[in-house]
Amino acid sequence: MRTKILVEPVLEALLLLAVAVPGAFAQTVSAPTVQELTAITERGILLNEYDRAAWHASDAVQTANPKTVEGQHYIAKKENGKWNVVFGKLTPDRNLFEIHYEAAQQAKPQEFSVSEEFAQRADAGFYLFAARAIEVAQHDFQGVNRPYNMAVLPGPQDQLYVYVYPAQTKPRVYPLGGDVRYLISADGNKIIERRQMHKSIIEPPPLDKGKKLAFGFHTHVLSDLPEDTDVFHVLTQDPRVPEMVGTAHFLYKVLTDGSITIEKTRK
What we know:
By secondary structure, the chain is α+β, with helices and mostly antiparallel strands. The chain is built from four helices and 14 strands.
């Protein structure tokens, strides 16, 4: 993977003509359907919402007591248009998930109301399965020595998607890459599929004052589709910047609303 940061909008047209990825002419492939690209967009948007909900909920809980959630799993779930984030642990037999704190999203997306579960409410449903899935993914994942975030989203047939992706550690530096998406059984105990979305991690430095970024760019060699975290990467930036993704046969553009267009096809 390589990245090129372009600051002049006129260079976009040159990129469309010049970008080349090894193996681009090796075979003829069909372009992805609108439904496939829409599904990637939807998962990327949901991942961004999950990440932000977990971030603000964690801040709200730690404001009350900075040590309350040490060593606990955080798990977010969207219900009726709002996010709830719970903090807790699996019981030793892994048959229940004990909820110690719950943070409920308020009218403003960044505001969460925190309640402490003095009786340590136990869950035997989604939160239990999600916590199991997190631990299964943690055991399998092999990353570099840096912080990572995790998210659990609904998958097909009641299965679970678990995302492991690099956490932001510096202001205005948005990491991309080194991430994995797991498809895990509905009970959270078994990995069905392991999808390495990107290999290496890239962290483009922030632009100097006065310079404007037209779009980012990276090549993607692991598949001919953009990834959920490509959408997440665009949505998490402030300000948002489109991202060009070059694969063996296609050049995609992830727009600032998360939608994806095919800019060029190589047959």
